[in-house]
Amino acid sequence: MNQYDIIIIGTGAGGGTLVHALKDSGKKILVLERGTYLPREKENWDSIAVFHHDRYHTKEVWKTNDEKDFHPQTGYWVGGNTKVYGAALFRLREKNFEGVTHIDGTTPEWPLKYKDLEPYYTEAEKLFNVHGKMGEDPTEPFRSGEYPNPPVSHEPRIQELHDELKAKGYNPFRLPIGVRLKENDMLNSPCIRCDTCDGFPCMIHAKADADTNCVRPSLSDTNITLMTEVKATKLITDASGKTVTRVEAERGDEKFSFSADIVVVAAGAINSAILLLASANDMHTNGLANSSGMVGRNLMKHNNAAMLAISTKANPTKFQKTLAVNDFYWGDDEFKFPMGHVQLMGKSNKDQISPDAPFFTPGLVLEEMANHSVDWWFTGEDLPLADNRVTLKNGQIYIQYTDTNTKGFERLKNKWSDVLKDVDDVTHFIPHSLYLKKNIPLEGLAHQCGTCRFGNDPKNAVLDINCITHDVDNLYVVDGSFFPSSGAVNPSLTIIANALRVGEHLLERMK
Questions:
Q1: Long-range contacts: 279-283, Cβ < 8 Å, 24+?
Q2: Domain limits of the chain?
């Protein structure tokens, strides 16, 4: 058996960042990743390969509780889902930590507050090359300083839209985004402002992801060992059930057993819960660290939607993901409950929109539609429900999920349609799904969180405030699992910031 000081399972926003946080500790660290490095290939920037053929998503089949199959849009790579994310890196708002009243219910209070996480948000923005401008977003939480990089500029069509929104009294702002871009020195800029960023892997490693920014730079430390294509299958405890003594794993038919003083699970909110459930034993009959019965419960994934706004105006924009609006995040004069967040997506082409067009739509029409569209992404907060959960039955992953808090979200989409009709010459709107297929809405799980929430009471939380499981002294979960609520902005930066915070705690523990 191989002995380590710490084992980290998973290399996404949580696990990859934690590797970075511990890289100078001098401790012997084993990192297990069930995937491999995402290949650099022409298909990285091929819309058909990426969106029609799901080239970079798992081929696994998960099931709903009524036995319907679906293919989750999640990927197993070094860097996890950050390899194909849109790199929109937002802080949660201060009120999100206090508990928020929605039309359909109230979210729980977090055991820590925004001020506790603010220094780590600042560090996370530096680590992930975030570009933005302080003071533009009216809902922006307190910041101890300016963004580490200047905001990404709008191309002319988007700047025109920005100016029209401002003239109508709205508050558009430059989207905080993690890209390795030097607009004042494009000759030497890793990022080239292409139209294949959002949803695509970056062929030139210019997107700030957990692989490029955290894992690879950490591997120069000889104390850190990364094993790829190795899936952790079970965590074994001692007789007391209070300490994990072994991690069992496999690569094809090859079996492994590793031990460490500390084990960190960071496989993503769904797969982390699955690993704990698969690790049930005589002392943990309902799954490891599950005396609360909360492992796998309270799954959140956001209410997400995308919309193509077709205009008579041509839109030659390439790098479109530069603008966002939070004017309706907390509601408006007519609706006193939160609605959600609006941001631009990457620019669609005809191949990306063709799955949502009638089958008889000619290619030239699709091309014209794409050339005259502006692409919008909507995020609304879904509520943590115990019955929205992840379970494991005979090795099969099941997801039970009922939509929540949809009234405010539907109002947001309708409101934004009205706004665009007022400020822009929009002919019509087409529901558009880059990430979600309309017939299988569970497929889009990029924002999964909440399955092992943290809290001070072991009776209704899996983790304590430092993300140690209440039941097992040396077991941590460091990914989106810890969220008590989801907010209405992309979760990645909060996952990264929390991993840095837990990393600091681990450095103290291991002294």
A1: 279/234, 279/235, 279/236, 281/236, 281/237, 281/241, 282/241, 283/237, 283/239, 283/240, 283/241
A2: 2-509
Instruction: Please give the CATH number for the structural domain made up of 2-509.
Output: 3.50.50.60
313: CB partners within 8 A, 6+ apart: 157, 372, 424, 425
* DSSP state at residue 200: S
The values of phi and psi at residue 424, to 5°, are: -135, 155
C-alpha to C-alpha distances, 325 to 88, 173, 330, 339, 429, nearest whole angstrom = 13, 6, 12, 12, 18
- Rounded CA-CA distance 87/493 in Å is 9
Type of residue numbered 324: A
Report the alpha-carbon distance of residue 272 to residue 452 in Å, rounded.
8
Dihedral, 290, 295, 298, 304 alpha carbons, nearest 10: 170
Give the DSSP per-residue string, 415-458: HHHHHHHHHS-EEEEEE--SS-BTTBGGG--TT-B-TT-B-S-T
Region for 149 from its dihedrals, namely left if φ exceeds 0, alpha if ψ lies in -120 to 50, beta otherwise: beta
At 232, give phi and psi (nearest 5°): -70, 130
What string of pLDDT tens digits covers the 511 residues of the chain? 589 999 999 999 999 999 999 999 999 999 999 999 999 999 999 999 999 899 999 999 999 988 999 999 999 999 999 999 999 999 999 999 999 999 999 999 999 999 999 999 999 999 999 999 999 999 999 999 999 999 999 999 999 999 999 999 999 999 999 999 999 999 999 999 999 999 999 999 999 999 999 999 999 989 999 999 999 999 999 999 999 999 999 999 999 999 999 999 999 999 999 999 999 999 999 999 999 999 999 999 999 998 888 888 889 999 999 999 999 999 999 999 999 999 999 998 877 766 665 544 556 567 777 888 899 999 999 999 999 999 999 999 999 999 999 999 999 999 998 898 888 766 666 655 432 333 336 788 899 999 999 999 999 999 999 999 999 999 999 999 999 999 999 999 999 999 999 999 999 999 8
Element (H, E) at 4: strand 2-9
Give the C-alpha separation, 327 to 491, whole Å: 19
pTM of the model: 0.96
**DSSP helix/strand/coil, 46:** coil
10, exposed or middle or buried, with CB in 10 Å at 0-12, 13-18, 19+?
buried
Q: Say if residues 11 and 272 touch (Cβ distance below 8 Å).
A: no
| Contact call for residues 345 and 198 (beta carbons, < 8 A) | yes
Helix or strand (DSSP H, E) at 6: strand 2-9
What tokens does 346 get? 């990457």
Nearest to 93 by CA among 143, 130, 146, 166: 143
